[in-house]
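Dissemination and training. As part of the outreach component of the grant, students in the summer workshop were shown how a complex can be specified as a set of sequence lines and then modelled as a single object. The example used during the hands-on session is reproduced here so that future cohorts can follow it. Participants entered these lines:
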Amino acid sequence: MKLATVRHGGRTTAALVVAGGYQPLPARNLSELLALPGWKAILKEASSGHCGPDVLPASEVELLNPVPSPAKVICCGLNYSEHILEMGRELPSFPTLFAKFADTLTDPDAPIVADESVDLDWEAELAVVVGSTLKDASEDEAAAAIAGYTVANDISMRDWQRRTLQWFQGKAFDRTTPLGPVLVTADALDPEAGLEVICTLNGEEVQRGNTKTLVFSAAKLLSYISTFTVLRPGDVVLTGTPGGVGMGMVPPRFLKDGDELVTEIPGIGTLSNRISLRINASL
Amino acid sequence: MKLATVRHGGRTTAALVVAGGYQPLPARNLSELLALPGWKAILKEASSGHCGPDVLPASEVELLNPVPSPAKVICCGLNYSEHILEMGRELPSFPTLFAKFADTLTDPDAPIVADESVDLDWEAELAVVVGSTLKDASEDEAAAAIAGYTVANDISMRDWQRRTLQWFQGKAFDRTTPLGPVLVTADALDPEAGLEVICTLNGEEVQRGNTKTLVFSAAKLLSYISTFTVLRPGDVVLTGTPGGVGMGMVPPRFLKDGDELVTEIPGIGTLSNRISLRINASL
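and obtained this result:
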């Protein structure tokens, strides 16, 4: 099942992706839907039912960030072995974690504007959306609590990220992490069996990894995080990026004003973001 | 003016601290009060008015975390010169920032329970609470947007903090950062003129710093953060800890089960937290 948050006629709604369009669901977005205790029953009902005249035609809607209001956005760095090696590090015993905010997220086709940074870099990622409350969860419990998967690009302000030992400030610029375009429910997709994660810059492929090579699987990450903090429906966990980021290149390569960044996980969908850097443009 | 969030008769309320007790304010806590556009007018009205029979006697209330639901809790590390030197680092050009969650916070007298960590350490801090929305703010604008100040202890799980390069996982255990006991409004307190920040362990003073030695003042921090992410009323910024933390001692010293940790900023108040470590207790 594919779910989305869409704008139609000036309003937003959670929706089920159906033939030809989007079947509205009883919530303004997927964050609100997942907060309903009965969200699974609502989906079952919607997916088994009619697709009547209330289906919104695909041509009339705009796809938005599916989960706009997570209380927690937690990201894993250094989780693909080849990316770890390109960054000059050893394989980790523990996941490297940092936080973003709901404000950091943006829509799947939104422009990325970061006037105060000149070293923007790409990080294509699989994102996991939590479907039920998790605390001190085993991997099996964590796997069962995954609502679904979506695509993210953890666009990073490397100049700010390197200012101090802590990456956070280079990872938390407002509206710089596109998410979407849909949420694929966990029963329909198995990252451990292998999903390609692809990043293309102005038509040139710069990243291609496979989630079966993740050091820490989605379920492992959720289980680990739940040891120290509770995860709730709608929370988002980014699973890390494969090799091929700009700062790993010789010489390093960063995003330029006007660049077209495309992030794709076949089976989920594609993010397409134009980079807008007023500082870079004037250099 | 001193403000608090108190529990009385099974309900919570925001309150103004008055002679003999707490004058209820029209919100369930200070997070909700600060989210009201007219919170300053409400305070003015309450402070100029009568203190009638609806004042809650101090003996009947429990002081809670004053701001229980910030969307953002951002912390500065390495901000007192003597603490920076004891950690073996150089004075910074930029603030080192990391994030916590609302879930990380707890009440001023709550026990601190962290079963999964064995290296708990103390970090007494001045906390700043935001009173109006800030984006790309100058230092003057940031100073004017401070609602007030409170006391925090950024209790840190050093074993988890050191597992990876990123401190976050050792800083975000649920209910390990006590906050309170009151919020002192910005007009009544000037950290740049100097506030003592004191931490006492089982009656022994382990930390004493002064906020006039902060490398980055409260207003500087808010201005800097607002360059990359918007700050809103009720958001919390922790300003860093002075010298004297346990991991800086030779040999390092960590909290033990049953320890009594007292954190004080004269002019604001005192946090008093008992440490409960089931893992340590069984060693």
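Chain A has a mean pLDDT of 94. Students were then asked to discuss how this feature might be tested experimentally.
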